[in-house]
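Its record is retained below.
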Amino acid sequence: MSETTPSTFADLGLRAASGVGLGLLALLLFWLGGWWSAALLAVGAGLMVWEFREMVLGEGAGTSVLGLLSIAAAAGSVIATEALEMRFGIILVAIVAVILTLGEGRRGRMAVFGFLYISVAMMCIDGLRADEKYGFVAVIWLIIIVIGADVGGYFAGRMFGGPKLWLRVSPKKTWSGFFGGILLAVLLGLIFSALTPGTFAVKVALMSALIAVVSVGGDLIESACKRYYGIKDSSNLLPGHGGVLDRLDGLMAAAIVAGLITFARGQSVFVW
């Protein structure tokens, strides 16, 4: 049995303290909504674009001229979505994506993909929060479902083990963990539906299952990128957690799908 050292407890304490502190701050800002939540998303978008460029293009790429442009555009797209409409944020992102493609050529294609992916995800979360009646609940539901899929996957995987989900990309993920995460997400969805008038439990549960599956896909995408570029964490910005990308990889994929469904239906993804 391995010995637990004081440094291990210190690391766990730092991880827990930073996680709880950042979680409470995010909860407060999303509850306030408007420019408060938009500012949080804009800062997150900028930091993740910086991390992604440093990961795929090397040290210093995040603070180059094109790097600073992409960071500003990612943050600006959220501000444009909050101040005007999402289409203006999308226009801004599209223009800057063309500039980045012309400026960095083939070498920068992956960085352009990351810029688009991150920007659109953050705009989608801002769009979800904009719903006056269900915005806060929808965003918290989305976050809780993603966390639930991760936590359920971890404990089910540890308990049951079994075949690996994608050994080459994420050696610790198992099929039992995958289904355990979906099960917990469904249960959490049912709880949210029971606490929210005007929702249909079965449909919210099914949507929660979909979001859980998508969040696992987002996690695997980032894991594949990190493995390809030979890094463990996207950065060390978050004490005990690695980078912002490491914490929000599943949430971004889930946010894009939730945003697309909201756009297609013309009402909150949480209301059925």
